[in-house]
Amino acid sequence: MPLLHIRSKQKSRLEKLLSNPVRLIVISFATVILTGTVLLVFPFASAAGQWTSPGVTLFTSTSATCVTGLIVVDTGSYWSTAGQAIILLLIQVGGLGLATIVGAFYTFFSKVHSWRQIELTRESTASPGGVELTKLLRWIIGFTLTAESIGSILLIWRFWPYYGSAAIWKGFFQAVSAFCNAGFDLHGNVGNGGFVSLTAFNHDPIILMVTAALIASGGLGFMVWLNIFTRKRGTKLMFHSRLVLKMTAILILSGAVLYWLLEFRNTSSATALGTLPWYQQPFAALFQSVSTRTAGFNSIDQMSLADSSKFLTVALMFIGAAPASTGGGIKVTTMAAVASGIISDIRRQPSIIMSKHYIRKSTARRASTIFALSLLILLSATVAISILENEIIGKQQLSFLDIMFEVGSAFGTVGLTAFGTPILHLTSRLVLIFCMFIGRVGPISFALSLSRQEEPSRIIYPEADILLG
């Protein structure tokens, strides 16, 4: 009897653990990361046929699953075709979310859905309750395959003069990586030393703009695209969709203009913006602005950026893309809600007003929590790595801003680096792994997955009267 009681108690704890959709999403990402870590260790995954350190594979698997793009070994030259295929699969699963993919298989083979599956899928896709689950999942998978297929065809066409038949794999890989906002590419080789991204293609605006279009498509969010393609003629888009499109356009265009103004005279390296012909600079500045919104590709040297440009990059990476997208960051809608709250408070308005719409207090409070918690993680991780890398800082190889750039890139699941991730010690890489994971699953989701659900308190507390400002 005691043994049966222990087993039933363990079973009930496991069921309670898996009953929370948020916890299931966190566990699913962790499971995919660990699976990728193990697979990439084996010799068949490396181009040299050698065993790879678990520290390297853990970082690579986390970066791929969390669609970040930070790397400690060059993807194109270090990994074999099998290893690259594993990384691409991790990117696809991480971009769509394991819950979305599993839910899609259920919809194709079953017409009956449990309430747990419905809750899990809606939490993963951030879909409203009125959206039909089967229709939503099939649409997400169909839209993803269509966008990636079109992008693959265009990129293969442009890469063919440079790579020949190898352009097929490189174009397909980059299309999936760009749509999932991952930032991984296969342009590195032994000859160029790797870690080159798209710096060799500034003369080809089609490659840059196709990649940017894929990045933006994945970063807008599936619910926005569903609303665009399924709305009835003559009806307006949902407020959420209009807000995402407006904020995305403002951030991309303003970012492009600021990058050009800050960098058009920068000639400190061979691939800096100022070294490009004047007619290539607008495309490079626009691509830089798009890529900072969680994509991680770069066509100009990030190490040569001015401090003002690096700070701008950190800000854009922190904001990120849209909810229910393949991108990261705190999300554009969160930033809009926080900004509206500040403006409403300055104007002494009793409620938060955004574009002549009322924002619920619960939504505003959640946005403020996400913003504050994310900023705390960014600053704490930056300080932690600064302490761990004190020796490198003392040699003036990198600054505090460079470290914040790296941490912001990890937390925003971007993949840009201002000094080269491989120079960091293992402990610092573990901090970045934590930031990438938190940035992908969301700081609040991660906190909720660890916390216990307590019974509502019946204690009535006295009101606290405090002074602010």
Chain-wise SSE layout:
Layout: H1 2-18, H2 21-41, H3 54-65, H4 75-78, H5 81-96, H6 98-109, H7 115-125, H8 133-163, H9 167-179, H10 205-220, H11 222-230, H12 239-263, H13 281-291, H14 307-319, H15 332-346, E1 352-354, E2 357-359, H16 361-388, H17 390-394, H18 400-411, H19 426-441, H20 443-450
Antiparallel strand pairs: 1-2
Helix pairs in contact: 2-3, 2-5, 2-7, 2-20, 3-5, 3-19, 5-9, 6-8, 8-9, 8-10, 9-10, 10-13, 11-12, 12-13, 12-14, 14-18, 15-16, 16-18, 16-19, 18-19, 19-20
Overview of this protein structure:
With 469 residues, the protein is mainly α. It has one domain (19-449). 45% of the residues are buried. A hairpin with a 2-residue loop joins β1 and β2 (357-359). α12 crosses α13 and α19 (426-441) crosses α20 (443-450). It is globular and about 65 Å long. It has helices at 2-18, 21-41, 54-65, 75-78, 81-96, 98-109, 115-125, 133-163, 167-179, 205-220, 222-230, 239-263, 281-291, 307-319, 332-346, 361-388, 390-394, 400-411, 426-441, 443-450, and strands spanning 352-354, 357-359.
